[in-house]
Write a structure and sequence with these properties.
about 375 residues; alpha/beta; nine-stranded mixed sheet; two-stranded parallel sheet; 15 helices; about 15% strand; globular
Length: about 375
Amino acid sequence: MSTKPRPFKIRIPQETLDSVRARVKAYEWGYMPDNGGWEYGTNLDYLRGICRYWVEAYDWRKHEARLNGFEQFVAPVEGIDLHFICEKGSGPRPMPMLLMHGWPGSVVEFVDIIEALAHPERFGGKVEDAFDVIAPSLPGFGFSGRPSRPMGPRAMARVLNTLMTKELGYERYLAQGGDWGSTIGSWIGYDHASACMALHINCPTMRHVDGPQTPEEVAWAEKFERDQVMQEGYRTQQATKPQTLSYAMSDSPVGLAAWIIEKFHGWSDIKGDDVETAHSKDALLTNIMVYLVTHSFNSASWIYFGRREEGGRVLGTDGRRVEVPTAAALFPAEMLAWPPRSYAERLYNITRWTEMPRGGHFPAMEQPQLLIDDVREFARSLR
């Protein structure tokens, strides 16, 4: 049996799509407090509306075709069939870039940026800014296979570095990520610096073993902890008993939609309470559908359990930081508030620090051009 990457196309059976639609249509709706809004969780009126659209108008095949417009492959890495988009860049010397999503995202996050990164000349840019874009589904997520047991981000960093170097043959590459992609990218820069030429992150996921040092850093840390209190429920469940939660999420498309849409509402740069000022119904539903049609909510949640077993997300225990050149893209509605630069520089070799005018936790979907421009500018300093 060949161990080389093999071509892959997304072809979800029609009976799977019909089952999802039937379960959404048959859902028995409950109630919410009269003054509920989004304060108690996903708003009932909004969820009923998007579910009505899901049943009556949403077209998975259209979005499946768009994803299939990119070259895709599956490669066996450490016993996992790893799915990835591989869009080869224009020109003679495109820079390899590993583009990593997080939870509750998927490769759907990147459909609006892959072509522009790989082929800038098609969008009024310069061909010398092109990238070979490698966008994997993380182990256990979406179209990738499942690890045999929960795998944390540091182990995923090793798997993805193996994909880039041994399977695809890149000696050096740029790593980019947000959410878990930022954590994985940080471990790539820390553990695999010989292959990782640089790191671009848009989410501050790592902590320093020595904690905050200056009054400004202490104030940030105290506020950060207060802000995160209401975020801990889902993390605790997925980090301790993910299997229990998975039964409900696998059985109920509406339940899974509520679980995920709450995060897109709370973590995005939206106007008022309208999540669709940042994300269309189609974008939200396509990302949700990836979890549903691949039955991957459970194994995707394992990363939280795996991180806990790995010991968390703390750098500096051995006196080191991530020494590869690192760019930080600070989007103002990021739900994990960035620390002062002085703190970040104890974690990373910060060579670019960009405070964005708008955008949140999902910049590739919310503000694709801002993210593209920042990655391009950073890469020019490396070429």
